[in-house]
Specification:
four-stranded antiparallel sheet; Cyclic Phosphodiesterase, Chain: A; 2',3'-cyclic-nucleotide 3'-phosphodiesterase activity; alpha+beta; globular; RNA 2',3'-cyclic phosphodiesterase
Length: about 180
Amino acid sequence: MRLFTALWPPAPVLAALRVAPAVPSEGGWRPVRPENLHITLCFHGEDDPVRRAEALDAALAGAPAPRLRLAGIGRFPGVLWVGVQPADALLDLAARAGADPARFRAHLTLARRSRTADRAAAPEPEPEPVPVPVPVPGLGLGPGPGPWWTPAEALLVRSDPGPVNGPGSGGPVYRTVHRVPLGR
């Protein structure tokens, strides 16, 4: 099963983030459903959930929980995101979860471009090694960053394809399979 480790911002942080106005209305962009907004620490791909949960317990249990906030906006090819500050505070957690520190970019995905639109679009440049957050009117972060928060836990999440048509279509379905408490 496809697994990843992530942090889910609390409701007050997500409430301060108004996603829809920031998502381009043209070009095949689809907003991430509100219940799916998260910060990925590590994508594990196809993996055994029991083995991965045991590894995460050993690596993350009691690890210091960083104080975070959402700030600025940027793009990767096919992805519109909001940044996480301080980004280096997440680096240790991401590395413990199994991410390559050299490739880790702290962000929360706001929208994805459809594969059809992505193929038709001009190639986008590779992101800068340290993306610079830029305020965006209507994003909900105003001229500055959002509220501070400290995650209580890291989640091991299963990702399944969502329905193609009808209610809830247009994105994966996430199910939490394991929780790892972080230290305070």
